[in-house]
Amino acid sequence: MTLVHGFKLIQHQAIPELETEARLYRHEKTGAELLSLSNRDENKVFGITFRTPVCNSTGVAHILEHSVLCGSRKYPVKEPFVELLKGSLQTFLNAFTYPDRTCYPVASQNVKDFYNLIDVYLDAVFYPRLTPFVLQQEGWHYELASREQPLIYKGVVFNEMKGAYSSPENLLALYSQQSLFPDTPYGFDSGGDPREIPSLTFEQFKSFHQTYYHPTNARIYFYGDDDIPARLAKAEEYLKDFDYRQIDTQVPLQPRFSQPLRITRPYPTGTDTTARHKGMLTMNWLLVETAAVEMNLALTILEYLLLGMPASPLRKALIDSALGEDIAGVGLDSDLRQIYLSTGLKGIDTNYADRVEMLVLETLAGLARNGIDPLTIEAALNTVEFRLRENNPGQFPRGLLLMLRALTTWLYGGDPLATVAFEAPLTTVKNHLASNHRYFEQIIERFLLHNRHRTTLILKPDPHLSEQERAREHAALSAVRSSLSDAELDEGFRCYDTEDFRIGYQAFLAKQKPAFQGR
User: Fold this and answer.
1) Is 79 a catalytic residue?
2) From the candidates 17, 21, 42, 65, which is the catalytic residue?
3) CA nearest neighbour of 44 among 105, 107, 106
4) Rounded distance, CA 425 to CA 293, Å?
5) pLDDT single digits (tens) 210-269
C-alpha cells in the first residue's frame, strides 16, 4: 500500500452518528499510530498520548508532564505553555496525567494557530529541556529561606500533591482504586505521594522520558475540518528522526481475588473537631476489561440506573438510610484497562460500617431478586443514549471528548473506534434488553453479587495524622540539614536569596546528591 508522508492506512470507517470519517494510520518507520477524525467541526483538536505506567509513587509521570512544557529544542523559553495561554488563539491547552498514560491535547479554530500549537507540543514531548533545575522547579527541591529557618521541601508538583493528600475525597478515590489493583501500576499514585516524591532522582526522571516518550509508544490524534495530508505531514516532521524501538509498556491485568477484602485507612482531620467522628466508606468491584464494548456500555447504563438519578434505587437506599451525609465514590470508572465501580457514603460513623455494607448488598440482592422498575431502566437507557448522541463535552472541545473515549480501548491495543462509534454497541444492548427482561438484574448478580473481587474501604478520621506526618517530614529534613556544613548552609541561603538562584542553587543541590536517594 502507498505510504503518505510515511504513514500507511490500516483502517477506514465512516461514523454516521457523529458525521465523521475516521482513518487509522501506522507510521512505517516508528510504528506510531495516528487516528484522524475528519468532519465539519472548525474547533480542531490535536493530542499526543504516551502510555506511562509507573512502578512507584514518586510522581515521575506527573512531574514530567509539567516539565516537558518548560522549554524545548525549538522553543527554549522558560514557560512556553504560559506564553501560549497568553498569545495564541487556543480554545483548549492543557496536559493530563492518568494512572497509565500522559496526554497532551490542544485545540484551536484557526488553522495556522492550530499547527503552531502542534509544533510547540511535538517539540516539547520529543525534545524537552530536561535539566536538574526543571526537576527541582516542577518536582521538588530543598529550600532554605534563612540560616535560622528549617529546611523545607518545595516544588510545583510536591505542593500540588500536598494539597491533594489533605482532601478526604481525593484520598477516598485513590485508596478505592488502589484497593482493587494492588498488583498493577494502578496500585501506585502516578500523581505522586508527597512522602515519596523527594526520593525521585534526576537520573530516574530523565530515564522515564527516554523510555516512554518515543514515537513507538505514541498515540497521535487529529480531529476537525483541517486537511488530512497536512496532519500526516506535520507528524512526519518529527517522527522521521526516530526509528522503531521495542518498548514494553503493557499494563497487566489484575489477578482476581479469591474473596472480598476490607481495608481501613486513616485520613487527616487536623483541628476540625466536627470531622473527627465522620468517616467514609466505599464498596468497590473490579468488573471487565474496557475493551468489552457492549458490556462497557451496559455497565454505564446500569451505573446511571443505580446511582445517577434522585430516584435511583441504590442511591435512594443509601441516602434514605440516614447512615451518612451524602453519596461517596467515583461511580463507574472506565478509563483504565479494567472497569471498576465504586460507591458508598461519606459522613458515616465508622462503627456502623457493617450496616452500610449490608445495606448495599441487600439493596442489590433485592433488585436482582424482585426486578428493577422498567420505567427506571427506560429513563437510564434514554439518558445515556441522549448523552452519546448529543456528545456535549461541557468545558472541553467536542473532539477532545472523543479522543479520551478512543484511548480507553486504543491505549491497550484495541480498536480506537470501538467506543467512539457507539451505534452498534447501543443497538446490541437494546436487543439484549428486548429479548431478556432480566438483562440488568443478571448483570447485578454476575458482576456485583457473585463477584469476589470486591473491597470495602473505610476511611477513618485521625486527628493526629497531620501532626505525625509533619513530624516525620521534619525529622527527615532535620537529618539532611544536620549533614550540611555551615559553609554549605550559607551557600544554600545565598542561592535562595539572590538573583543567581538558578545556577547557584543547582550547585548547592548537586553537592547534596546522596540526600536525594532516600525518602
Assistant:
1) no
2) 65
3) 107
4) 7
5) 999 999 999 999 999 999 999 999 999 999 999 999 999 999 999 999 999 999 999 998
pTM listed for this prediction: 0.92
Which one-letter amino acid corresponds to residue 368? A
Of residues 167, 210, 175, the one with CA closest to residue 50: 210
C-alpha cell at 407: 484511548
If you ran DSSP here, which 8-state letter would residue 128 be given?
Answer: B
User: Which pLDDT score, from 0 to 100, does residue 274 have?
Assistant: 60
Could you tell me which residues come within 8 angstroms of residue 80 by beta carbon, excluding any fewer than 6 positions away? 69, 70, 71, 72, 120, 124
For the beta carbon of residue 499, count every other beta carbon within 10 angstroms.
Answer: 6
Apex 91 CA angle, 89 and 93, nearest 5: 95
Query: Which pLDDT value is given to residue 1?
Result: 65
Segments in the chain below pLDDT 70: 1, 270-277, 492-519
Catalytically annotated residue among 19, 79, 83, 138: 138
Q: What is the 3-state secondary structure (H, E, C) of 332-374?
A: EECCCCEEEEEEEEEEECHHHHHHHHHHHHHHHHHHHHHCCCH
Cβ contacts of 92-96, under 8 Å, gap ≥ 24: 92/45, 92/396, 92/397, 92/400, 93/117, 95/65, 95/66, 95/69, 96/65
Determine contact, residues 426/297, Cβ cutoff 8 Å: yes
Angle between helices 353-370 and 313-320 (to 10 degrees): 150
- 160 catalytic, yes or no? no
Q: Which of 184, 65, 106 is nearest to 399 (CA)?
A: 106
Sort strands 218-224 and 33-38 into parallel, antiparallel or unpaired.
parallel
pLDDT given at position 87: 82
What local confidence, expressed as pLDDT, does residue 82 receive?
A: 83
What's the one-letter identity of residue 211?
A: T
Neighbouring residues of 175: CB distance < 8 A, sequence distance ≥ 6: 263, 265, 457, 459
What gap in Å lies between CA 4 and CA 159, rounded to an integer? 46
